[in-house]
Design goal:
single chain, alpha+beta, 60s Ribosomal Protein L30, Chain: A, eight-stranded mixed beta sheet, about 20% helix
Length: about 325
């Protein structure tokens, strides 16, 4: 599953631009080469391969998921073609995810959604179609109380026709955290689609051996409203405020880390590659510190007015 190493230095039909390599999830046990784990998200700067977890041994195939074990973690990755019915594919892949995590607790899910901002069948945006399928799958599996079990997650656009979903789960019960500056995503009004997004703002996993903090994809949303539509640097300011607020809500001050974590891993998604120099300069001044690992990626984001999204993992 996910392997992440980054260092502080540094539409349906489209493919990743030839000048940028597609980001690689670095799935333990899948090797470091080939197309397995590539998600169709071009890398603008930083490492092209993630490495959050140490090498894992393959344990099983559950539905669409290849499943791996590494230390206290159960990890899985699935990719399915989503050309015709994204909602049905989303429901199927999440049902398989639940089958692969029986007696485990989800800590983090990464979603790579094809043509995320394009209009799908019935005039609904693909992200909203994906959210409906994911939400229905969660409720179908966990019942009406499913919101309390939602883990940290992200969903960004990819330049392929496949939906890719990656999970990390633990036996121990994690703690899911919300941001006091934002309405919980799962409580968004129907202005943003028929079913709200299904994720927590962060998940904290306590462990003497392998503690972890997963901060979901975070952008310039206050309450449930997009701030500074189209203004990347103003959105970056709001995003940073949200990140520090989430850290404080986790009881971690403004550190965005957990005691015992080896390092922080950051992925920065940019809608417009030309924003890279200004965004990187600001982050190096305000957020990043020595030892952080960071990749800058070219991706569409869940709302068309959003230009930047940041996710962070300390592990």
């Amino acid at each position: 599953m996910v392997d992440s190493s980054f260092t502080k230095t540094g539409s349906f039909m489209s493919l990743a631009p030839a000048t940028h390599t597609s980001f690689h999830l670095g799935i333990p046990g899948e090797g470091t080469s080939g197309e397995a784990g590539r998600v169709g998200v071009p890398v603008l700067a930083g490492p092209e391969r993630e490495a959050l977890f140490s090498f894992g041994r393959p344990t099983d195939h559950v539905g669409a998921f290849s499943v791996f074990q590494t230390g206290e973690w159960r990890l899985g990755v699935a990719t399915l073609a989503a050309d015709e019915d994204l909602e049905a594919v989303t429901c199927r892949i999440y049902r398989d995810l639940f089958s692969a995590t029986v007696s485990w607790h989800l800590a983090r899910v990464w979603n790579y959604v094809p043509a995320i901002n394009q209009t799908g069948p019935g005039g609904l945006e693909n992200y909203r179609i994906f959210c409906r399928g994911r939400s229905l799958a969660f409720e179908g599996h966990h019942g009406r109380g499913y919101k309390a079990l939602l883990p940290a997650a992200s969903a960004v656009g990819c330049k392929t026709r496949q939906l890719t979903v990656v999970f990390a789960a633990r036996r121990s019960l994690p703690r899911h955290v919300e941001n006091p500056l934002q309405v919980p995503a799962y409580d968004y009004p129907t202005d943003y689609g028929p079913r709200a997004p299904s994720f927590a703002r962060a998940t904290v996993v306590g462990s003497a051996v392998s503690p972890a903090l997963f901060v979901s994809g975070t952008a310039a949303i206050r309450g449930h409203v997009t701030v500074a539509p189209g203004d990347t640097l103003r959105q970056l300011d709001i995003t940073l405020e949200n990140l520090f607020s989430i850290s404080e809500a986790c009881g971690l001050g403004r550190t965005l880390s957990v005691p015992g974590a080896a390092r922080r891993h950051v992925k920065v998604y940019l809608r417009f590659p030309d924003d890279l120099p200004a965004v990187r300069t600001k982050l190096e001044r305000v957020l990043l510190r020595e030892g952080d690992v960071v990749s800058y990626l070219h991706a569409d984001i869940c709302r068309q007015a959003l230009n930047v999204e940041i996710e962070l993992t300390a592990i």
